[in-house]
Amino acid sequence: MLKLTLKDQPTVPLEAEMLTPDHFAGLSLDAIRALPVFHGKRQLRVDDFFTVEGEPSEELELHGDLARVKYIGRAMTRGRIKVVGNVGMHLGAYMKGGSIEVTGNASDWIGGEMTGGLIHVHGNAGGQIGAAYRGSLAGMNNGTILIGGTAGLEVGMRMKRGIIAIKGLVRDFCGLQMKGGTIVLHSGAEIRTGAWMIRGTIISLKPLKLLPTFPYACTYNPTFLRLYAKHLATLGFPIPIDEQDGAYQRYSGDTSVPGKGEILVWQPRK
Amino acid sequence: MLRITGGKVYDPANGINGEVRDICIADGKVVANVEGGRTIDANGMIVFPGGVDIHTHVAGAALNFARALTPENQRVAAKFMRTKDTRMGIGGQTPTTFATGYLYAGMGYTTVVEAAVPVLSAKHTHEELRDTPIVDKACCLLMGNNELVMDLLELGEYEKAKHTVAWLISAAKTYGIKAVNPGGVAAWKFGKDAKQIHSPIDGYNKVNPGTIIANLAKIVDELGLPHPMHLHCNNLGVPGNVSTTLETMKLLEGNRAHMAHLQFHAYGGDDWHTMRSESVQLAEYFNTHPNLTCDAGAVLFGNAVTITADGPWQHLLYQLTGRKWGNLDVENETGCGIVPYTYKGSNLVNAVQWAVGLELLLLINDPWRIFLTTDHPNGACFWRYPEIIHLLMHADIRRERVRALPEAALSRIYLADLDREYTLYEIAIITSAGPARALGMKQKGHLGVGADADIAIYNQNPDGELMFRYPRYVLKGGEVAVEEGEIRSTKDGHEFVCQPSYDEKIEDYLKPVFQQQYTMSFENYPVEAERVHGMQIAECSYKKPN
């Protein structure tokens, strides 16, 4: 395992897209220390900010308050990154495979336009999770993002495939312009959930304040959810599915686009 | 002083077809002989006159708007890092100004014509062209929907209209004029379009697209502008538009005209489901009418950004794609629309478009009258020209690509039946000698004594794409600008402008109209000569043959 410890928090955000198992592969410790990072407009070395210890490996552990370190795990395809502490923006952007675990909080734009792999944040996360970068047609195109805490605005904006599951409360515009994939809200969301959604599924275990463009369709327990429930349970984000406990109310929309998406709201049996 | 020795020279304007001969250069010009100086050994290489792009969109308000509208393209675009000699920039669908110069030169192109400039934003265009290094430039002024001119034509004041056009060209410091969807863009301001050549335009009683086209072509010839009217016909991109295009061409008999991006105007069928290629019909007419030149406006599959002054078409395209749409208001002069677009091989319409571009290049017999363009960035980016050259040179590769198209497309195109293969000599014509002649630039597009020493030297290679993508050397004005894929010098190019003569009394007419109708004052309107970098005034010496 390779251990990197942040020496001091950088004064301006540090862009560290080299911090991935892919870039470290086959490099000696000295070569890893010499990899470039960008501090503002200056190109500096990894060891200007981090102490690097351990064995070169596919497993990477980052320690310290990395709230100002951006682009960790950008476009990674394999291996594991564990961040012990907080982490900055664009974590796992364009990620293709492998996994990232964060013990603290994460910032905005994590998993932006990712196409595979797993990101698990135990604390809170910011907005635009798994979203499309500005101007792009589609956001995350596969993979899984799990958030133990709360999340910010525009979660899953324009996402096309994959799963986002969030334990805490999510802010406005969750699933904005969503094109496919699944968002699971364990504690519900604030307003305008699913605005402009074209396809995809938003599952909420708490009542939602829905837009008027989401008409009620039916109450049922969709068969496909059994599969999802099984999968999510293995990830530690279980959802109820038993008919004894209740059923899901299906709202379809967003009819203003018009879209064929759905919002499923869990209704426990009284 | 410089001598290029040992290369096979392709100089169609002087009838030289692959002969091994020396080219001598002194003071930025080709000369008969030089003593001393550097010698470039071009053994095993081919020597072409520098490329001339007759129709492209590389500078100005519309392009800048497109750059801003498509950050998703910029993120994945090729990056140009700052070096000792070059500025930073990005390539992609809508390259930044400096990158545009490097990319064109890096492909062996040394002259480019920005095809659509409104007077109102001409200053912006000239300033961006100033920042487009290495290549020489010229631009065409948008005139097909200028309400000052249309109002005069409505009143039957032909002479006044002619002087107004001349005054506007002088004011905007452009090389020629271009008419885009004549009348249609003016009608667009009322939410309409001009679909019929002979029906009056909204807001006018007498003026119809046909009157504008015929009068502008006549005005350009009478003013003696070196380049004929550049025309983007009505009904661009619409199935069945070939009838409009043929009607338009008939109106132009007796005058010169350059038909821009003809590919977009050569469709049959009644709707998107029945759209088909009408390249054969169009090429037949075109082949027998030597007053016309055209450029291909070919399409390649992949991402593109469509940018045109044709506002109504762009609105339709936006509705078809559901993607982003930008629309600029250019007061009384023209319109502008931007829609990002992806041409897909699996899409029937796109497959037909792809085939039509190549078919026109193959079916129009005279390479001196059809030129290689993609209407950058509309059909594809200019830096993809080598892909088209490769297809033109190999019928078998074209057939292989045709086989990959949807089956429904096969009965609607002619491409698989065409055996013609371009020779290097013909490639030199459609990329350089032909466009230079159509532009009336006597110093460009050839390697005879007295020509500008703009030269591209390629390693000879059976793979046309590889050969033309990576020139071994590119010389601009006698200096080595590109060597082994690296930019070596970035001397600024010239900008060619025309200053046709006009009756100065026209200002007495224009000024009050102007003050009433424009947001800009009359005095601030013309582009100052100092703003045009490296300005060279071209003579207006065209004479209509009797």
The total count of strands of chain A amounts to: 17
Q: What radius of gyration of chain B results from the CA coordinates?
A: 22 Å
Task: List the uncertain runs of chain A.
Answer: none
Give a short account of the largest sheet of chain B: 10 strands, parallel
| Strand order within the widest beta sheet of chain A | 5-1-6-8-9-10-11-12-13-14-17-16-15
By CATH reckoning, the class of chain B would read Alpha Beta
Strand fraction of chain A equals 25-35%
* Strand residue content of chain B: 15-25%
CATH architecture classification of chain B: Alpha-Beta Barrel
Average pLDDT of chain B: 94
Total of DSSP H or I helical runs spanning 4+ residues of chain A: 3
Classification by helices and strands of chain B: alpha/beta
Total domains of chain B: 1
Q: Mind telling me the C-alpha Rg of chain A?
A: 19 Å
Question: Helicity level of chain A, as a percent range?
Answer: under 10%
Quaternary organisation of the protein chains: heterodimer
Relative helix content of chain B: 25-40%
First and last CA, distance of chain B: 43 Å
The average pLDDT of chain A is 95
Biggest interface found:
A-B, 5 and 8 residues
Task: Give the overall form of chain A.
Answer: elongated
